[in-house]
């Protein structure tokens, strides 16, 4: 399994399908933010990360310009990652509550983290065609991992997953919503549940739209659903 995921990563790292995103990610990596001027930015597409035997897959939006685009690992190096990994640690899915770089020892247990778009987009807003260009990588990860539970962080991730899973158009995004999936889906016959959550962006967490308690409940529910499908 790991070798097959590594093959997807190797292909992803050479991807230049979206000229706007390629130009932006590389320019950010050169210009840098003053606080990180000593860093050697990643500046490439960011691969998925986690347990290759994971039954739970988490799907975010895209790498942050000075977070994952700097570090090279999903949800690492910015406020969104701090909020996410602390919650995963409390829920028993992560070995530590903090992650600042790729070699910090963080291990994920039964969980794999990926995104609908793998390059940092300007203003955190990938275009629909850019998301479509990236979708095959996500589909291939899902086909390999065969998750039982999927968590969408944010509306864009939720809508992308609805398309990939051929889910009913009536499924509506809202924080904490839980949807049972039809197990006859030809892509992911093992996927039983789709959960949606507000994205742990600074915009959501600092305004109180997403609180620690609200986010913790998502992972408690994910754990309960995993236990119910074993």
- Give the radius of gyration: 16 Å
Query: CATH superfamily assignment?
Result: Uracil-DNA glycosylase-like domain
Integer tally of domains: 1
What composes the largest sheet?
6 strands, mixed
Q: Give the spatial strand order of the biggest sheet.
A: 1-3-2-4-6-5
Tell me the span between the first and last alpha carbons. 20 Å
Poorly predicted regions are none
- Looking at the structure, the CATH topology is Uracil-DNA Glycosylase, subunit E
Class from secondary-structure proportions: alpha/beta
CATH architecture: 3-Layer(aba) Sandwich
List keywords for this structure.
6-stranded mixed sheet; alpha/beta; single chain; 8 helices; Uracil-DNA Glycosylase, subunit E; 230 residues; 39% helix
Can you characterise this structure?
The protein is α/β, with parallel strands linked by helices and 230 residues long. The protein has a single domain, classed as 3-Layer(aba) Sandwich (Uracil-DNA Glycosylase, subunit E), CATH 3.40.470. Helix content is 39%, strand content 11%. It has 8 helices and 6 strands, in the order ααββααβαβαββαα.
């Amino acid at each position: 399994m790991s070798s097959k995921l590594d093959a997807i990563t190797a292909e992803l790292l050479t991807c230049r399908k979206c000229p706007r995103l390629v130009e932006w990610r590389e320019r950010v990596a050169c210009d840098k933010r003053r606080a990180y001027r000593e860093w050697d930015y990643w500046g490439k597409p960011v691969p998925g990360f986690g347990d290759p035997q994971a039954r739970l897959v988490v799907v975010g939006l895209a790498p942050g310009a000075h977070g994952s685009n700097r570090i090279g690992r999903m949800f690492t190096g910015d406020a969104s990652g701090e909020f996410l990994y602390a919650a995963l640690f409390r829920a028993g899915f992560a070995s530590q509550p903090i992650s600042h770089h790729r070699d910090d020892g963080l291990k994920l247990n039964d969980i794999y983290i990926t995104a609908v778009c793998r390059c940092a987009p300007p203003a955190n807003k990938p275009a629909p065609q850019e998301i479509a260009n990236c979708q095959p990588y996500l589909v291939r990860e899902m086909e390999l991992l065969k998750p039982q539970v999927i968590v969408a962080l944010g509306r864009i991730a939720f809508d992308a997953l609805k398309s990939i899973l051929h889910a009913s158009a009536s499924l509506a995004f809202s924080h904490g919503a839980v949807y049972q999936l039809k197990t006859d889906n030809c892509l992911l016959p093992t996927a039983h549940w789709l959960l949606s959550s507000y994205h742990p962006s600074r915009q959501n967490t600092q305004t109180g739209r997403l609180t620690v308690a609200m986010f913790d409940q998502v992972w408690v529910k994910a754990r309960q659903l995993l236990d119910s499908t074993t």
